[in-house]
Every structure is written in C-alpha cells, then in structure tokens.
Amino acid sequence: MARKILVTSALPYANGSIHLGHLVEYIQTDIWVRFQKMQGHTVHYVCADDTHGTPIMLRAEKEGITPEALIDAVHKEHSADFAEFLVEFDNYYSTNSEENRVLSSEIYKKLKANGKIATKTIEQFYDPVKNMFLPDRFIKGECPKCHAKDQYGDSCEVCGATYNPTELINAYSAVSGAAPVRKETEHYFFKLSECEAFLKDWTRSGTLQGEAANKMGEWFENGLNDWDISRDAPYFGFEIPDAPGKYFYVWLDAPIGYMASFKNLCEKQNLNFDEYWAKDSKTELYHFIGKDILYFHALFWPATLEYSGHRKPTQIFAHGFLTVNGEKMSKSRGTFITARSYLDHIKNPEYLRYYYAAKLNSTMEDIDLNLEDFVARVNSDLVGKYINIASRTAGFINKRFDGKLYPSANNTVISEIKSAAQTVEEAYSAREYGKALREIMRLSDIANGYVAEKAPWVIAKQEGQDTVLQQVCSDALEMFRLLTLYLKPVLPKLADQIEQFLNIAPLNWLAVSASLPVQHQIQSYEHLITRIDPKQVEAMVEANKESLQASPQPHSEQRHAVHQQNEVKADAVEAEYISIDDFTKVDLRIAKIVSAEHVEGAEKLLKLMLDIGEDQPRQVFAGIKSAYDPATLVGRLTVMVANLAPRKMKFGMSEGMVLAASNELGGPFILSPDVGAQAGMRVK
RNA sequence: GGUGAUGUAGCUCAGCUGGUUAGAGCACAGGAUUCAUAAUCCUGGGGUCGAGGGUUCAAGUCCCUCUUUCACCA
Questions:
Q1: Global pTM?
Q2: What is the ipTM of this complex?
Q3: Of A460, A484, A493, A515, which shows the fewest CB atoms inside 10 Å?
C-alpha cells in the first residue's frame, strides 16, 4: 500500500556555507527519501533556508546590503551545493516567505486563543549606541578566569570557562563597542510549563529514539521553562500581529518554515495541504535533525503543533555530529571543509554519499570521516568490488556478442543476491545504511568470486564455448544490475548512468524480481568511476587550512537558544577584596570523617559523614571520588564549611562542603590539619 | 557537578533478547590469476572485547566500581 510521507531536514541558517557536517544530515535524509520513493510511496521532501535573527541582520548591515539581498545570495549558494550533492528536495524554500508569515501569525493566534501566550517584563543587555538589545553572543569582554581578551558572553575559547555575560570584565557590545547597559523590556512567552503532561506523553510514545527520549527526561526533571518567543526591534523577522515593535524569535518561525515550504509546494503541484497538517492527518511526517536541536523539535515544536490544532510528527530522527579524523572539525587543521571545497577538489559527490552511508546508523552517535579510510574504502568498495563486476565482463559482451545478452535460466548466485532484497530493504527503512552497504558489499564479493570461478577469460579462448561465455558474462551483468538497484538510493547519478549503459528503465524496488531478458541489447561500456587519489584529499585539507587564529567556534544552536531564553540575572560584580566581616561569615570547622562510601549512580561523588562535634554527624556529598578510595578516608581529619546552606542533591541532602585543592595539574586534594586539631574546632 | 552516549584487531566498524575456538572490510604476509583504468580469487598472521570486581553452568553481551572520548545542561 502506498504511503503518503512528508520528510524534512533541518533548515540551514542563511548565515554561512554548507559544510561537510551539514551534509551528513541532508545525505542521510536524501537516501531515505530516495529509498521510499523507489518503494513506490508518495514522498515529499521539503526544506528551506532559516533566514531570520540578529546575526543575519547584522551581517547584512556589515556588508552594506539588505537582509533580503543577503539571504537571496545564500539561498542560491545553498541550493547549488545541495543540487550538486544530489540532495533532491521537492522544494527548497525560505522562512522569509509570505506563506511562513501567514502560518506563523495564524499559529500564534491559535496559541494565544488557547491561553498559551503570556507576557513578562525582563531585563536584557542593551547597546545604547546602536539602540538594540544584545544576544549573549554579541557581548564581548575579558574572560573572568584567564583574562583572555575579546571573549564571548557565554564562554571563553582560550580556557574553556563558561560564565554569564555579567561576569565579563570590561564588557562591550560586539556591534558598536559601547558598554552595554541593562534595560527592561516586555517579552512574549509560550507557556511550555503548561504542556508538560502532553509532552511527557508524546516523547515516550515511540516518536523518539530511545537515547533521545532518555535525554528528554532530563528536561522534565528540571521542569519546563516558558519559552521566550519575542525579540525587540530592530530584528529581521516577522512582526507579531498584535504587538508592534515585537518580532517572533527566529526559532518560532523556523520549524513553521517546514509547513510553509510544503504549502508552497502544494501551490505548485496542487496538493492538499490539510491532508498533511490537519489534526487528524493520516499521512506520515518525519523530521531528520541533529541531536543539538532535539530540544526544539521534541518539545517546542510538538507543543506548538498540538496547541495550534495541527498534527504532530510521526517520528523524529536525530543523528550525531561529524568528526574529521577523530576530532572536531577545525579550521586550523584544515578539516572545516565546505561543500564547495569538496566539490572543487574531490569532484565526485557520490564518494562522500557512499562513505557517509557506510558509517550511518539509526543512533545519535557521532560519525567520523577518517580521510585515509575514506580513500581506501571508496576505492576498494566502489571501484575494486562493485564497478569491477561490469568492467571485467561487459567487454566480452560488447566485443564478442555485439552487446547482446544471453542470461542463464538458473543461477544460484543471482538467486542469492535477489533473496537479500528484504535485508537491504529493512536496513534502509530503519536508517541502518551501514548495515545495508555491508550486505551489498558482501554480495559484490560473491559476484566477483563467481566471475573468478568461471574465468570467462579462459572460456573465451576455448573453441565452441561461446554460449557459456555469453551466459557467464550476462549473469554477471544481471548481478551488477541488482547491486546497482540496491545502491541507487546512495548513488543515484551513477545508477542513472548504469541504467543507460544497461539500456533499461529507471530501477525501482519492483525491478528486483525482473531480469535482463535474452537478446537484450546493452550499450558499450565506458568506465564509470575512477579512484580517488590521496593527493586530492591532501590538497583539499591544505586549501582549507587557515593560518589565522581560529574564527569563533560556532556555538551549538541549543546553547545559543537556551541562553537567549534565560533572563539576565543581576549578579553583583565581585569585588577584589572582601572584608574581615565577610570572611568571618564562613564557618570553617575541623571535621572527622566518620564514614565514607560510594554513591550508587553518581559519577564523581562520595558520601561522607562528618563529625564536627555536633550530636549527629553531618552528611556531605563531596566530588572527590576520582582521587580517593573511601576506605582510606575514614578516621581522617579535614576542613569543612559548616554553615553552607544545605542543598538537596539527587542522592540526598548535603549539609556542608569539604574543602579541597585542585587545578589542571591534579587534584582534588583534601586538606589536613596539623596534629592536635580536634573535630569541631573553628578554623579562622 | 549532573545527564545522555562512547571505548571490540594497525585503521574504520559489525556483534539481536548472555551460549560452540570473538567477526567483516581496509592495511599487512604468502600463493593464484590477468577479463577488468594495479582491479579479482585463495590462504595466513594479528584482539586477555578500556581496567577491576560480581551475578551465572555460561558474559564483549547483565550488575557495581574506576577510567577514556564526546555532547548537552549546571
């Protein structure tokens, strides 16, 4: 039965080029879509550029163009990159579209009518020169820990410390250089906290991978915060209908961009939008995303849909990140490789599609692009094994039999390859591409073994064996046809060339049970694919090396968003000195460790019972598990903070803090008093 | 500090609900072959499955502790 399926990939931000990390997702999705289409299902694959937000606005300004001109240019670039990597969207649109404006407004109004919108006055950093509110990323200053200059508002790239923008020393606006001030403003919130019951239910109903559902559990444990969905002018985005000067936060209209892109496709192809998005839709909806934006797709998005009267996603497929040679992509190492740069150097996009597919599975594990392995694998699998089957047999058919086939009636190898169809099918369907390709390569080995065993080059020299020769080679080409069919979701362009070579109609899954008929005429064989020269890869890496200091590490979308959603808290700037009065507020005591034990389930904690001369020993959880065996601690004296507010931890109350020394060289080392100190003595 | 993952041959990875001497590809060694843009076939060496403890007749596979790498949160 033909299914109706709508598939999306995450929307790339219109502020940068597509790189090899992005491509993991688009290639993964494209393979799945092509596979489902080959199965005969109705599939629409839509995507769009994510175009709104402060970074786009500012970049356009810097380049002296309008945001619209910027996103138009990026849209062209992205579209070209995807097309060349054979990522075949049914529609690649933009979130800055009329359809999206209308849908975003409608959804907002429905959320409001359902009582899910609230307003709240918050305090944010404000650039008094530029007259705009500043996201954390646009506040820079000196790192409070290592004092590196020009660090971002949320973390230091030199020492790795994380902090609040308020902690930066000599903070300044990255836009104007002015010192930011705090300013109050009214923001609109989506009352996510009221959606908890619905979301708990939804995230556990099989819509997420197991690991993803576990991850979601964390958010529930901490309680859901209302989601800040507005930004103040100036902002490049959609103005909120009933709130002049307030704009939808980019993440509100981005997922609605999936709908808008599809709406646009409906207009072009006369499809029924509501059939796919109405609350009771019988169609299927799948979102392919990176694990970093799970938060938006598994919490905000389904809640938005639910309370605006729409259907929810059927499933969300999250994948891991790409590493190159086992490490994060890095500009200084030359492994931050753009799609364009790959095309310039390696040329053939199907090599990368094949390699990614060989590595992909249905989990959220990161996948590694090992460049040496990439060359070896592509050369060995695609050229040595797969293409070689045709390359070594087609010549005989063309030269000796005028391109005419004479397949045998019964070939056990062909039967075996055909019978693997279900295994391959299931693997693709479950997004276990690595498994599918392993099976296909196993079959390729069998096919090559068949040719080696029959040795057509020997038969060719024997008198009166023409028919046998023709059969062996025809059968090998039939094997090749089947393998091509299996590989087609991954290698669509190559499959297309092979269809022409074999002179057959475009392969779909039904063609598994067909065969090349007797007397079928094939075209002459021309070499279809060449080996990668490792020098090409070296040149690519070299070309991507940036000698300059690494440009800012892109913060993950999630961190970015969550920070934006947090209100700026009014931390007092720490003074350099404290008074004696401040110090005496801290009640330090000599403590005797009465008992020490491991805490089940805790990574770094030990549970200590500390005697400080009170009736009952204090229970304290200390993060010293890595350095101390509990048994050796019992009986020792150390120092604790006795008047620290008790804190409820996952494992119980912690009624104090043990002091310990550490830095990057080692630790923690707990303190020991000199001989004579007694439990309970005050330290000052 | 918390949470979710992760650690299996030189490299990249399979190993489902625990069950014979732990698998594949690449790389390496030896042999065969020459149809194929040095591709193919056969054979072989190589792993105390991150470390330690436990459950079990039986553990890479379950439990605990420690540890590696990564991500997210604080």
A1: 0.81
A2: 0.88
A3: A493
